[in-house]
Amino acid sequence: MNAKRLVFLSYFGALFGLWLILAEFGPWSEWIIGATASVLVLIWLKVSLLTPKDIRPLKGKSLWAIFPFLWHWGIDLLKANIEVAGIVLSRKMKIEPKFYTMKQPLKSEVSRAILANAITLTPGTLTVDYDDETLTIHGLRAHHFEDLKQAAFLDDLKKMEAPDA
Predict the structure, then answer these.
(1) Which residues of 11-22 are buried (b: 16+ CB within 10 A; e: fewer)?
(2) How many angstroms separate the CA atoms of 104 and 54, rounded?
């Protein structure tokens, strides 16, 4: 099987699998809609956003790095939810909101986008801007930025973008 077909099938499988989970494995009509939507999203991504160097099949170490990334990010997400809930529910909101800039730790566009979205989806932090050189992040507390620089999921993203041995 050629590389382009393998890439398409792996991304299609991920999108369609997510659709099935979200649709709770509903009737066959939802399966058809999900498959069609997955193909259309992949066509749109190929035409509008992703370049051939960004689209590559995940295999070997890169494939297995997804699971530690999701695990470490999930733990950070849970901690952040608990902390922000505590801040919101307390009588005195002890926050020191600030903008922080950090050097861009990742090389590929896809990895950078995943990192920016992971930061934004984590309560208490927001990616305001990113480019090839830097990330601009807003945090509710100073330790949010320090925690991010040492986050285990950042190392997992680096492993995902590393070429397989």
Answers:
(1) beeebbeebbee
(2) 17
Q: Where are the alpha helices (DSSP H) in 1-141?
A: 3-22, 28-44, 61-64, 66-89, 109-121
Cα separation, 29 vs 23, whole angstroms: 11
Using CA atoms, how far apart are residues 40 and 15, in angstroms rounded to an integer?
A: 11
How many residues would you count in the chain?
165
Q: Provide the pLDDT confidence category of residue 153 given band limits of 50, 70 and 90.
A: confident
Question: Looking at the DSSP assignment, which residues form a beta bridge with residue 100?
Answer: 137
- Say whether pLDDT at 60 is over 80: no
Cβ atoms 57, 160 nearer than 8 A: no
Tokens 């307390």 appear where?
90
- 153: burial class by Cβ within 10 Å (0-12, 13-18, 19+)? buried
CB 129 within 8 A of CB 136: yes
- Reported as a single tens digit per residue, the pLDDT across 28-40 is 888 888 888 888 8
DSSP 125: E
